[in-house]
Amino acid sequence: MNPEIWSDRERDQKADQRFMREALRQAKKAYALGESPIGCVIVRGDRIIARGYNRRTTDHNTLAHAEVIAIRRACKKEGDWRLEGCRMYVTLEPCPMCAGALLQCRMDEVIIGCMSPKSGCAGSVMNLLEADGFNHKVKVIRGVLEEECAGLMKDFFRELRVRVKEEKLARKAAEECSGKMAVDKAGGR
């Protein structure tokens, strides 16, 4: 399709996919560190102003979520705690802490890859971002590159379960081996 005749929604969808791919690149950095593969970018106009990916385990810091890291960087770059006029692209629905941070920084819009049914606060468990009663609401768009975002999470946790199982078996084998060696030593061998 000729870009000159795209509708606004088609143009928005193309931009949403482009920026979500950037968020996925960030998520893959977290994956490479053994972190939950969540990534995000913050955009003003058509320019990325900040990036973030999960670093909780790496940094030994509960607050080191992709969204919080990106918000901190964007605020520093913009020289203001308010990020009005910005939108965030994030691969997984924000948790309560991150949803609160998005409200506090006055983010205009959050575009989400896949939902988080056990801890998401943009519509799964609750919807803090669009709730009445707060002094700000964040527009939410869900399901951009959903299959790719969900697939990355599924692959990570499938590999994690295999790794945990293998480590458990290795520990059990080591315990059995050291127990056998203790019996052998006690028996005079």
Shape: elongated
Number of helical regions: 5
Q: How are helices and strands ordered from N to C?
A: HEEHHEHEEH
Instruction: Count every beta strand, where a strand is a DSSP E run of 2 or more residues.
Output: 5
What is the terminal-to-terminal distance? 80 Å
Judged by helices, strands and strand pairing, the structural class is alpha/beta
Major beta sheet summary: 5 strands, mixed
Uncertain stretches: none
Q: What is Rg?
A: 22 Å
What's the pLDDT, averaged over the residues? 90
Spatial order of the strands forming the largest sheet: 2-1-3-4-5
> Beta-sheet strand percentage?
15-25%
Helix content: 40-55%
Describe the overall structure.
This protein has 189 residues and is of the alpha/beta class. Helix content is 49%, strand content 16%. Strands 2-1-3-4-5 form a five-stranded mixed β-sheet. The protein is elongated, with a radius of gyration of 22 Å.
Can you tag this structure with a few keywords?
elongated, 5 strands, 5-stranded mixed sheet, 189 residues, alpha/beta
Layout of helices and strands, plus pairs?
Layout: H1 8-32, E1 39-44, E2 47-53, H2 56-59, H3 66-78, E3 86-92, H4 96-104, E4 109-114, E5 139-142, H5 146-186
Parallel strand pairs: 3-4, 4-5
Antiparallel strand pairs: 1-2, 1-3
Helix pairs in contact: 1-5
